[in-house]
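Entry:
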Amino acid sequence: MVYKNIVVEKKDGIAWITINRPKVLNALNTETIKELTDAVSELEDDKKIKVAVLKGAGDKAFIAGADIKEMKDMSVLEAKNFAEHGHHLLSCIRQSRIPFIAMINGYALGGGCELLMSCDITIAGRNAKIGQPEINLGISPGFCGTQCLPRLVGRAKAKELLLTGDTINAEEAHRIGLLTRVVDDDKLLQETEKLAKKIGSKSSVQTSFIKALVNKGTDIDMHSACALEVSYFSSSFSTFDQKEGMSAFLDKRKPGFKGK
């Protein structure tokens, strides 16, 4: 599929999705959100893809937020539709079988912060700046920021960030649990690729199982979550990858997982 605002590259089981609007710091407009949603759907159907990486074009921003120029004169109905498109995109990423890695260079603000929070793993360069500054524009977050942030960093810290609109650096974001890891800027691409390849070398059946278990389990009570884990665990024994993984362990060799 040909896109106008994003670039999708596939190599060695990894899909690299680049938001390609560097002149506006990769701001999310309606068209870009729809293209990202289509790309996630396309990758979901491509069984060769085991991991996806989201990144921003240029060296200044992952995503500096939603496109304020487009939003400024929206009606209530238009704003509702815009937010719903954003929520749908984030939901598609969370529900995808594919582990998503957000590679954060520069600014990840507003919609950029919300998009990174929908990903499974977040890796950032030390120059990254992260926040939810919507309150400074006279609005509240519209792409799940008020719901995702407290689930990651706790209610009190989330309220502080949301109510002040403050931007924090990568080290602070990592300390409070908003980022998985922080690396030197000049090693960001290299470390992201290394991480993606490591996850991609595992059984794609199990990466999808584990992602689903964590996402579903943390939204239900502990008893139900543990029953869900037992169900997924036992289902694993119907797969080729379980037999191959255990045989390889006993044979002291590298497993040849097939994702089935």
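The longest strand covers residues 6-11.
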